[in-house]
Structure formats: C-alpha cells, structure tokens
Write a structure and sequence with these properties.
Layout: H1 3-15, H2 23-31, E1 52-55, E2 58-60, H3 63-72, E3 80-84, H4 90-96, E4 101-106, H5 109-121, E5 127-131, E6 144-153, H6 158-161, E7 164-175, E8 181-189, E9 192-201
Parallel strand pairs: 3-4, 3-6, 4-5, 6-7
Antiparallel strand pairs: 1-2, 7-8, 8-9
Helix pairs in contact: 1-2
Length: 217
C-alpha cells in the first residue's frame, strides 16, 4: 500500500474540508506515518475516517476529530501540554511537533511502551510517556498550558482541570446520554474556569471516564 498517498488523501478529504487551517497540524499529519501507530492487521485502513481499536478498550481517534480538537487549542510553541491517554502515541506525536513539551499519561503498560518506542523511532524527544491512571492526570508535572483528552469522556474531573495553568486551555469530547459527543473547550482566566461547546462528532469513550463526576457544562 502507498501510505504516502493515503496520507495525502486523508489530509485532502478529511482534514482540509473540515475547516482545519493550522498549517502546523496539517504538516504533522502529512508527515507522520499513522500506520505505525495501529495494529499491523489494521494498517491498510490506518487513514480511514474512523477510530481504530488498539485493544484494552482503547482507540486511535479519528483523524478529523484529532485535528479539529488541536486547532481549537490554538497551540503555541512555548506550551507545555498534558495528554490524557498516550495510546500508541499518534496524537502526542502531533503535539510534540508543535509545542515545547508533552507529558502523556497512560495506564496500559504495553501501550505506554509502544508509544515510547514509536516516538523514539521518529526522533520525537520532547514527549514523556508516564504510566499511571488516566483519571488522575499527571499533577506532579503540572500546571499545563494545554490539556488534551485523547478520547471521549462523560465529564472533566476537577482533579484534572485543576492542573490547568492560568490562561491555559483544555479540550475534550464530552459524551452525553444518547451517544452525542460535543467538543468542549475550557479555559482558566483569573482563576475561573469556563467553557463552551464547539462541534458535534462521535468517538469512543476513554476507560475510567464513563461516569465521572465533577466538572460538566
């Protein structure tokens, strides 16, 4: 399979038509070999407009959703980002191409190891994958300018929103009863966190976030 051509088709048919204009995100998705982040039997559909199962209840999120969420964050080259769910490393590889530092929390040991291996092979050395429970984030390395949820959740736990720096931005797909997911962008200004919905889409839930309490809009 010509993966280079598949990447071009993904960008031309999924990313650009969905109002993704941040050239840094577009370039990263054009250059990163998405196929190495999915199980070998699924590599022929690595660039499909769908989530791809990794096992352990985990998925590589749809390319369009990943790109739109990152664009909404208005990423800066000086940002320190937290990713909730490293998976095999695709989303954090994109972030690592744009921001200064990425901390990614991953609770499945084999996925954390795979993500670390993939990032190393690509020469991305500003991303740290930490093994730990997704639900707690990574408070020791906080605060963060950016918090990115690599999958849908029911609500944003306060323990994670508390890790957001002043003027920081957090984005997540919030899944409500009935299966509707809304991209929700939150920010901290003068110590107060507020948020707004951006767009609707569908993506699988992250484990441990099915019925969390605490910070919903």
């Amino acid at each position: 399979m010509d993966f280079s051509a598949a990447r071009r088709t993904m960008v031309d048919c999924q990313i650009l038509p969905n109002n993704v204009t941040d050239q840094r995100i577009i370039n990263a998705m054009m250059e990163l070999p998405r196929e190495i982040f999915v199980p070998r039997p699924k590599r022929n559909v690595a660039y499909a407009d769908e989530s791809l199962a990794l096992g352990f209840g985990r998925f590589v999120m749809e390319p369009m959703i990943t790109a739109r969420l990152m664009q909404m964050l208005e990423l800066k080259p000086t940002d320190v980002a937290l990713s909730i769910g490293a998976g095999t490393g695709y989303s954090i590889a994109i972030l690592g191409r744009i921001v200064e530092t990425v901390v990614a929390i991953e609770q499945v040991s084999s996925l954390a190891q795979e993500a670390t291996k993939n990032l190393s092979e690509l020469g991305i050395d500003n991303v740290a994958v930490i093994e730990g429970q997704l639900i707690g984030g990574a408070p020791k390395q906080s605060p963060y300018n950016i918090i990115f949820f690599d999958g849908a959740i029911s609500e944003v736990p306060k323990v994670i929103s508390d890790q957001l720096e002043e003027e920081g931005r957090l984005i997540a797909m919030i899944k409500k009863p009935g299966g509707i997911c809304r991209a929700h962008l939150m920010s901290r200004n003068h110590g107060v966190i507020s948020g707004r919905n951006i767009f609707e889409a569908s993506t699988p839930l992250l484990p441990s976030f099915e019925q969390e309490t605490i910070f919903s809009f």
